[in-house]
Amino acid sequence: MFGEYSVNHNQADSASGDPAPASGAMPGNLPPEPAGFIGREAELHSLDGLLGDRRLVTLTGVGGVGKSRLALRAAARRGRTGAGGIWPDGIWWVELSPLRDPGLLTTTVAHAVGLADHSVHPLDEELCAWMADKALLLVLDTCEHLVPEVRHLAGELLQSAPGLTVLVTSRERLGSPGETVLEVRPLPCEGPDSEALALFRARALAASPQASAVFADPARARTAAEVCRRLDGIPLALELAGARMRRWTLEQMAQRLGARFEVLRGARAVLPPRHQTMRTAIGWSHELCEPVERLLWARLSVFSGDFDVAAARAVCAGGPLPAARVERVLEGLVAKSVVRRSDERGAGARYRMLDTIREFGHDWLTELGEARTVADRHAHWYAALCGAADRGWLGPAQVDWYRRMSAEHAQLRTALEHLLRTDPAAALEMAGALWFFWFSCGHVHEGRAFLERALGGAPPTGAAHVQALWALGLTMLLQGDMGAAQEVGARCTRAAALLADPERRLRAAYLRAASVLMPGDPAGALALAGPRARAGHGGRSSGAGWLLCRLATAYALCDLGRFEEATEEARGLREACAELGERWLRAYADYVLAIAALGLGQHGEAARHVRAALSGKRLLGDRFGIALGLDLLAAAVAALGDGELAARLLGTGHAWWRTVGRPQMGSPSLTALRDQGERQARAAIGDAAYETAFRGGAASSTG
Questions:
Q1: Which residues neighbour 62 within 8 Å (Cβ) at sequence distance 6 or greater?
Q2: Residue 139, phi then psi, degrees to nearest 5
Q3: CB 150 within 8 A of CB 102
Q4: Predicted pLDDT of residue 702
Q5: What is the average per-residue pLDDT within 101-127?
Q6: How would residue 232 be classed by pLDDT, with cut points 50, 70 and 90?
Q7: Is 346 left (phi over 0), alpha (psi -120 to 50) or beta?
């Protein structure tokens, strides 16, 4: 039972919504390994030894040499062979390739390891405190564009967490004290069974099964080995060349590749030889693409991380590349190994380019004079997507929107950063439209930072300003910054009063009500958001403002001990949410129904409602909601007389609260509820048994 609510990133924050690993499986979030890993046994052996006794290991090497694949292979191997004894808290992968703003490094790492901190303290301090008693392997992948920031953060974390090991991949070393550097060299090219030749053969056969005859002929196998030597055994270059076997003979490839390198030989070298080889191999592959493929390659370089075909069509179409052709041209780039596609086909497929290839494409985009135009298209496409998600959030597609926006997180950041520089009004609108992403999906620190920047750069008038103020206040609520939330709520109320839109006034009323309710003033909250106040504002009973005001009202009534009225209010809210097909607010309605049932002495009914709430919160990765629910379930179970189960649930809840930040958010009523469950559990089974069960619940929460 406890595994269902275990603190596991794969469960709470996965965009796919997949269940957590089975009991006993190592926690973590390693991505799936790409098929066809070849060789590297010596490097894997060395790396395995280093990870066993060094705390900071950096894999360096030229772009395309396979640093990330080697790190993933080593980490996955460790996970399969019982690394739980060394790192019982798991192996966590942080992909930094899409990250362009160094200021979001700590946020990215925290989110990857499952820390959705909601406090106002600096996030680096909270991350250090959270990791202090953890024993885990943290893999920071692709760090060369963030070396100073990664060096600082890794140093802080290693100093704070004695059980932490950090594995870094980067084209350059961090230069940190205690860093061990392992250079990843190209694959060996010598001999008929070389690893370079094996990789080239595998990629050639994948492109053209008929190529098997080529490698069976000793003379032609020697030609293939020469191709591998010319490409210096660099895996990415070999993959690009192997993909060409779909259209060329081996001899044609060797001849054209040779001609390309002869031109280089007469040119003045501006890069180290292996960097030059990689750049040349990419340039050669680029020249051999069709013109529309080269154009799409360049335009795709604006994407950070992965993307779907709809975004590629919207952002990259134009001129000689009509929208109707984008998908076919994109598949051509996949066939040439320029773009990689996820295993999923159809509408769910995601695409990405490796950094080295993307950088080449972006240089070409700049040469074409299209960099600003395509970046504008990218930003406005994702801004429009945020608007659609905002409109659809309180509806039947809510879980789908949660998963989609989580998958697009890197693109949302890139778009917002671009708009903050180029179109402050659009940035303000986009940041405000993402209120649900900041408030409901665990991105409170990041949301507050973006909203404050957007509000500081745009005129303080209009609906977008009111929406962004409201969204900012929501992030402050979850951080427990009640004074700031009340001040922003007052500003939001004044600005909303100038608009002929009752929904904006209702949202402002909720913000003000919640900011006084959480510190312990339910009567004040009821005056601001109760039925009389709602009627005075008007508005749609299906709007976010109206529904949130009903939630605040139900909470306030519970705090006032008016449980029958709270039940009626919460039932009305739940019915409205069910009619909309909405899950996030419906789960909070179930939570309030559970509190009211507990207050009325209906302990079994309380447990039933809170389990329904937890089910909804799990679907949306709402860590705050899960932590709340576990405390309440423990209180209900304790009241039913099962002290051991209550203690285990409180232990699990304690671990969840650690991922949120402030336990019980500093709320007097939430703290009292949690303490009530503990007192009853201790009374039922005694202090010693309670402590044992509590520790068991806390420990199971990380597995």
A1: 171, 186, 234, 272, 274, 275, 278
A2: -105, 115
A3: no
A4: 44
A5: 90
A6: confident
A7: left
DSSP codes, 479-543: TT-HHHHHHHHHHHHHHHHTSS-HHHHHHHHHHHHHHHHTTT-HHHHHHHHSHHHHHHH---TTS
Residue 48 reports pLDDT greater than 70? yes
- Picking from 638, 700, 703, the residue whose alpha carbon sits closest to that of residue 673 is 638
Asked whether 105 and 150 are in contact (CB, 8 A), the reply is yes
Report pLDDT for 81.
72
**Which of 90-99, 267-276, 488-497, 677-686 has the weakest average pLDDT?**
267-276
| 419, 421, 425, 431 alpha-carbon torsion, rounded to 10° | 50
Q: Which of 190-199, 329-338, 431-440 has the lowest mean pLDDT?
A: 190-199
Residue spans of alpha helices (H) in 266-322: 273-287, 291-300, 309-316
Average pLDDT (616-624) is 90
Residue 607: the pLDDT is 97
Is residue 35 within 8 Å of residue 76, measured between CB atoms?
no
**Residue 320, SS3?**
coil
For residue 264, the SS3 value is helix
Per DSSP, 338 falls in state: S
Q: Rounded to an integer, what distance in angstroms lies between the CA atom of residue 327 and that of residue 309?
A: 6
| Residue 668 Cα distances to 256, 513, 517, angstroms | 74, 16, 10
What are the start-end ranges of the H helices in 123-181? 123-131, 147-160
Residue 319 DSSP one-character state? T
- Output the pLDDT for position 84: 56
CA distances from 534 to 401, 503, 514, 547, 696 (A): 28, 10, 14, 10, 46
pLDDT of 24 strictly over 70:
no
Interacting residues of 310 by C-beta distance below 8 A, sequence separation 6+: none
CB 504 within 8 A of CB 466: yes
Distance separating the N- and C-terminal Cα atoms of the chain: 12
Reported in sequence order, the residue ranges of 223-291 that DSSP labels E, i.e. its strands, are none
Neighbours of 317 (CB within 10 A): 17
What confidence category does residue 268 fall into, taking pLDDT thresholds of 50, 70 and 90? very low
pLDDT value for 18: 32
Count of residues in the chain: 703
How confident is the model over 68-91, as pLDDT tens digits? 999 999 999 988 775 556 899 999
Q: What one-letter code names the amino acid at 245?
A: M
| Per-position DSSP letters for 352-400, written without gaps between them | E--HHHHHHHHHHHHHHT-HHHHHHHHHHHHHHHHHHHHHHTTSTTHHH
Cα–Cα distance for residue pair 351/343, rounded to 1 Å: 10
Q: Residue 183: is its pLDDT beyond 60?
A: yes
Specify which residues 477 forms β-bridges with: none
Contacts with 130 (C-beta within 8 Å, 6 or more apart), sequence order: 110, 115, 117, 658, 659
SS3 assignment, position 563: helix
d(CA 215, CA 205): 10
Name the token pair of 589: 């309605």
Find the helix or strand (DSSP H, E) in which 432 lies. helix 424-433
CB of 7 within 8 A of CB of 683? Answer: no
> pLDDT at position 675, please?
93
Lowest mean pLDDT among 38-47, 260-269, 459-468, 663-672: 260-269
Query: Across the chain, what does the average pLDDT equal?
Result: 89
In the prediction, which pLDDT does 261 show?
57
Q: Which residues are 141's β-sheet partners?
A: 95
Sequence-ordered list of residues with C-beta below 8 angstroms from that of 686, at least 6 positions apart, any chain: none
* pLDDT average, residue stretch 311-327: 97
Q: Amino acid identity, residue 436? A: F
* Beta strand pairing call for 163-169 and 56-60: parallel
Q: Give the C-alpha separation, 524 to 514, whole Å.
A: 10
3-state secondary structure of 166: strand
One-letter amino acid identity for 182?
L
